[in-house]
Structure formats: structure tokens, C-alpha cells
Design a protein that fits this description.
The chain is α+β, with helices and mostly antiparallel strands. The protein is built from 16 helices and 14 strands. The chain has three domains: about 210 residues, Longin module (Beta-Lactamase), CATH 3.30.450; about 130 residues, DENN domain, C-terminal lobe (Rossmann fold); about 90 residues, no CATH class. The strands form four sheets. A five-stranded antiparallel β-sheet has the order 2-1-5-4-3, sandwiched between helices. Strands 9-10-8-11-12 form a five-stranded mixed β-sheet, covered by helices on one side. A hairpin with a 2-residue loop joins strand 13 and strand 14. InterPro entries: cDENN_dom, dDENN_dom, DENN_C, DENN_domain_containing_2, Tripartite_DENN, uDENN_dom.
Length: about 450
């Protein structure tokens, strides 16, 4: 187990070679999606998932329970040797993330099923999502929970949560009903944004059912639930977290429930749009990887609160530690309130306070929160397009000094002087220099924003 944990640690520590590049992937790539699949993911046409695994708890010789994969669909077949090695490495890691609680389990008579997700990073720095439903198998007497985990390169939590609902529904009747359903899903095509795919599935006594799976129109937000984050934390703490991650610091979120933990971690990362978190990113940190928090590199990790004492015992450098259950800061660096420009920080705070008081649906909250933080980036660096100078046909260079000098506000300029040194900014600018098609939505919004500001400058 310790050897496996060491392998996993290395896979999550995505080392940077130099400013503007990532080990194993070019800086202009979106590492959340493999390069050859980007167009398919954005337009649809890709398979829903790679495989489904069932992870169960098995008692060891020492009397403790350890998670093991007891079923896999489909099996690893007809793939190249190096691909098989990579897949087996990932498969070996999955049980740790399905039961990150360690060996603290004992048979139960009752257990409320919960849904959560985790992220695995490949050698090429692409990411795979694990969508999990942990439940108690049907039966009498005490028994151990098990996890149904779907591995996919697609980030779409809401859609996969619905798929897991169908999996659990069939599990309650008979395990054998799950696999025909998953086979039908495997043969279906992942829909384009806003589109629906229909899956036929037979259930005894109910007959053939038609299951409709609809993908959100705005695919930027299909893996996100900001509502949970707003319910757990007040606006001031959310701003502390945002300020920390935007300067690529170390952040730890603590919660009891895996679902809350993973939802909030994904939401925090989504606040950075159009930028992407380029460092260690573990929504649910397995107990055996607790020492990851002593790493001096930037990270965002989620930890169950039963391991908080273990976290506090680690030799951590400057870190922001947040308790999602109590809605309070456990530990902070101390300068979080001074990182963001005060006026813009206050605007975000007022907006977040409004969202917490007004009853809205999750999609409405997601859209509103995303817009608020995207507007922040447009206000502080929306003028970047004016400082991309063409040096060759289709090739541009970024004039950083002129970009900073163009800002009249001292507080915004002070923030930008720190922000331009981050890896996420360097990678974003490199993509713009190469006229990448990434972040087209943001580019369009920046164009509209700058057009609106023209009359103000006259």
C-alpha cells in the first residue's frame, strides 16, 4: 500500500519545467481533456465512460478492512502494452479514492448512500474523473458498503450523478441489471452541449425504460455546483480562498461528507475561469496520502474532518485551512484580505451575499457566480488583448510591461504584478500568443467588455 501511495503522489505532483510550460504537456493544452479528444468533448461524439468498477471492502489478515476492485466493466483488452501499464496503475489507485477514510470501516446495518467525485492525473498530465456512488448492498444484518465508480475523461458531474442514480436503482433489484444498462451507455454517444441522448434499459416488472440524459447548454459549468459552496461558507471566506488560489498558494478544505468536499473543491477551481489550476489537485485526499499537505508546491486538496488532527500534525508551510462544516478558517497566512483590489473585492462580496439570500436554482446560481468572477478577471486584465503584438503571421508576443503600465489603479496594478508571475497566467497568455481556440467564450466576453468601455474613455 505504501509503494502504491508513493506512485500516486508522483502522479499528482505535476512539476513545472519553466515558466509557461508543464512537464508532459505543452503550455497551450487544456490538460483536463486529452488533446485528441478536445473537439469531440466540446461538440459531443465521445464515449461516456472508459470503465465501471465496483470497489468492496475486504478484511485483511490483521482484521482491518481494505478496499479492492471486485468487478470491472469492460476488462482491459486489446490495448498496447504501455497503455495497459498506465491503465493498471490508475486502476490500482481507484480503491484508495473510493474509500479515502482508510481502514476505519466496520460492517453496518444502515448507511445513506452518497455521491462524490475525484480526479486522477495521467502521466501525460491529462485528467480522468472518477464518479462514485457509495452505498450499502441490499441484505439483512451488518454488511460493508461498496462503491460503484465510473471512470471518464469527461467532466460532467450532474449527468453522471443521474447515471449513478440508475445504477443504484438497478443494484437494489439485482446486480445483473447494472451491466446491460452500462453496455447501452457505452454504445451511446456523448451528446453535444444542450443535447439529449436516450438509453433503452429493461427492468423486470417495469419493462423497457427510456432514460434521457441531457447535457447542459453551457458546458463550462457542467461539473460544478456553486450552491454547495455558498451554503457552507460566507462570502468573506470564499474571497480568502479565491485570493489564495489565484496566486497559486496551498489550500486545504475539510468536511465530513465526501459529497460536500468534492463539490466545494471543484467549485473553487471553477472560480478561476478562464484560467486553469495547474498544480496538485485532489478533491478527496486518501488517508495514506495525508503527507501531501507538507509539500512546498501549490495544491488544492480536500480532507475528511476525521483526519484534521493528522493534518495539523504535518509540517505545513503557509497554507489556508478551511472547515466547510463549521464555515470557518482554521489556519491562514494572514494577508488574504490584502491580495485582491479592495473595490473589486467588495463588489464580489456584495454579489455573493445577494446570491446566498435569494432563492435560485442551481443552474441560475452557477451562471451568476461564474459571471461575477469572470467579470473580476475582465476588469483587472481585460486589456491584455491590446498588448499582444504580432511578430509573425499568426504569432504574437505579449508586452507585459506595457500591460501593467496601462493600469491606472495602484491596487489593481499591485495585484497584477503578482498575478502575472503565476503559472496559470503564463499558460493563458501563451495560448493567446498562439491564437489558441481555448476560452473562446471568455475572449468574446472580453471583446464585449472592451467595446462597452470605449465610450467611457472618450
Amino acid at each position: 500500500m505504501d509503494q502504491l501511495a508513493g506512485v500516486i503522489r508522483r502522479s499528482f505532483r505535476r512539476k513545472s519545467n519553466k515558466r509557461g510550460s508543464i512537464h508532459g504537456a505543452s503550455a497551450s493544452e487544456d490538460r483536463s481533456i486529452p488533446t485528441d479528444q478536445k473537439t469531440l468533448v466540446l461538440s459531443g461524439g465521445q464515449s461516456f465512460f472508459e470503465y465501471l468498477v465496483v470497489v468492496s471492502l475486504k478484511k485483511n489478515y490483521d482484521g482491518n478492512y481494505a478496499p479492492q476492485i471486485t468487478y470491472q466493466f469492460p476488462k482491459l483488452e486489446n490495448i498496447l502494452h504501455f497503455q495497459k501499464d498506465e491503465e493498471e496503475r490508475l486502476l490500482n489507485a481507484i480503491p484508495l479514492f473510493c474509500f479515502p477514510d482508510g481502514n476505519t470501516w466496520a460492517p453496518l446495518k444502515e448507511y445513506t448512500s452518497e455521491t462524490f467525485s475525484f480526479v486522477l492525473t495521467n502521466i501525460d498530465s491529462s485528467r480522468k474523473f472518477g464518479y462514485c456512488r457509495r452505498l450499502l448492498p441490499a441484505g439483512n444484518g451488518s454488511r460493508s458498503p461498496e462503491v460503484y465508480c465510473i471512470i471518464s475523461s469527461l467532466g460532467c458531474f450532474g449527468l453522471f450523478a443521474k447515471i449513478l442514480d440508475e445504477v443504484e436503482k438497478r443494484r437494489e433489484i439485482a446486480t445483473a441489471l447494472i451491466y446491460p444498462f452500462m453496455q447501452g451507455l457505452r454504445e451511446a454517444t456523448f451528446p453535444a452541449p444542450g443535447k439529449t441522448v436516450k438509453i433503452k434499459s429493461f427492468i423486470p416488472e417495469s419493462g423497457t425504460e427510456i432514460i434521457e440524459l441531457t447535457r447542459p447548454l453551457d458546458c463550462r459549468l457542467e461539473h460544478i455546483d456553486f450552491k454547495t459552496l455558498l451554503q457552507c461558507l460566507n462570502s468573506q471566506i470564499i474571497l480568502h480562498i479565491f485570493a489564495s488560489v489565484v496566486l497559486e498558494r496551498r489550500v486545504i478544505l475539510v468536511a465530513r461528507d465526501l459529497s460536500i468536499l468534492s463539490e466545494c473543491i471543484h467549485a473553487v477551481v471553477a472560480l478561476l475561469y478562464p484560467f486553469a489550476w495547474e498544480h496538485t489537485y485532489i478533491p478527496v485526499l486518501p488517508h495514506v496520502l495525508i503527507d501531501t499537505v507538507s509539500c512546498p508546491a501549490p495544491f488544492i486538496v480536500g480532507v475528511q474532518n476525521q483526519f484534521l488532527s493528522h493534518i495539523l500534525d504535518q509540517p505545513m508551510e503557509e497554507v489556508l485551512l478551511v472547515d466547510l462544516c463549521k464555515g470557518e478558517l482554521i489556519q491562514k497566512v494572514g494577508d488574504e484580505e490584502k491580495i485582491l483590489p479592495p473595490k473589486l473585492q467588495e463588489q464580489i462580496r456584495i454579489s455573493l451575499d445577494d446570491y446566498q439570500q435569494i432563492t435560485k436554482t442551481t443552474p441560475e446560481i452557477n451562471t451568476a457566480v461564474s459571471k461575477t468572477f469572470m467579470q473580476f478577471f475582465m476588469k483587472v486584465m481585460g486589456h491584455y488583448t491590446s498588448h499582444l503584438q504580432e511578430i509573425n503571421v499568426g504569432k504574437f508576443t505579449f508586452q507585459e510591461k506595457a500591460f501593467l503600465k496601462a493600469i491606472h489603479s495602484k491596487t489593481i496594478r499591485r495585484f497584477l504584478k503578482c498575478f502575472v508571475k503565476t503559472q496559470m497566467f503564463s499558460i493563458f497568455i501563451e495560448a493567446q500568443q498562439n491564437k489558441s481556440t481555448q476560452n473562446v467564450y471568455f475572449q468574446q466576453k472580453v471583446k464585449e467588455f472592451n467595446e462597452q468601455r470605449k465610450p467611457e474613455r472618450k
